[in-house]
Amino acid sequence: MLAVAGLSARMLAEAAVRDGFEAIALDVFGDVDTCAVAARWWPIGLPGEFSIHPEKLLGTLERLAQRGDLQGWVAGSGFEAAPGLLERGAGLLPLIGNSAQAIDAVRDPKRFFAALAALGIPFPPLADSMPPQPRGWLLKSATSSGGSAVQALELLPAAARERALRAPGSYLQQQAPGLPLSATFIADGHAARLIGCNRQLTSAAGSRPYRFSGLLGPLALPAPVQQRIGDWCSRLAGEFGLRGLASLDLMQHGDELAVLEINPRVPASIALYPRLPL
To answer: 138 and 174 in contact (C-beta within 8 Å)?
Structure first.
């Protein structure tokens, strides 16, 4: 039996059940589909707040640990801004997948992009301070998910730009041309195996042009491109000690690729791979 936790645990619960586990779902919504597939559902937040409540999560994990029949718990989306919460939860019930330390390292922009530079992996340029011309620059946050915090700098009021950049995890990155991709991979702490590549779909809302809105895949990319992406996944898995399922986000412009980030958790693209080709 496994516990699966996140803002929405439906996808994780469905994946666990497909692989023969009983799943206990911990999430914010408790929707009909989640409750239909899970053996039990526990609330760990309020839908109107769209966030995980730390004490509700920890209290639920403590109660589940006392049962003695769970192998551990898997964390989904919603923990990006709270790596310490993952560590506290892992002290109550074994956390399956990436450690809180590995997730913290990957989500730290300075450490992540420094690692890309050291490994010779291309990425869009960064800026340490406000560029003279905001056009073509994005304000991003390492403490969010789904592109919800990616903002076009030119669409932000000037007075709000500096204030937003001072927020924890915020950074400036040049807008990259091309189409957004994600690479689904599985890692063992030393290397990774590419499962498949997918086209990411986005929709714009006000100053936020890249909200995640779905995936298409798997894509039949040229073999050299797919091999390059797989090599990057493997090298980054070794660099950060990644384990389990994750995804690499990148931009494709012709034959050129540029890495954006790693999502060090079970990605939404897992829904495209009901049986992993391992």
So the answer is: yes
Neighbours of 128 (CB within 10 A): 8
37/39 Cα distance (integer angstroms): 7
Alpha carbon distance 246, 64 (integer Å): 25
Tokens representing residue 196 in the block: 């498949």
Gap between the terminal Cα atoms of the chain: 23
What is the C-alpha to C-alpha distance for residues 168 and 84, in angstroms, rounded to an integer? 14
- The secondary element (H helix, E strand) that includes residue 126 is strand 126-127
The residue-averaged pLDDT of 186-193 equals 97
pTM: 0.91
pLDDT digits (tens, 9 = 90+) for 68-123: 999 999 999 988 877 789 999 999 999 999 988 999 999 999 999 999 999 999 99
For residue 54, the 8-state DSSP code is H
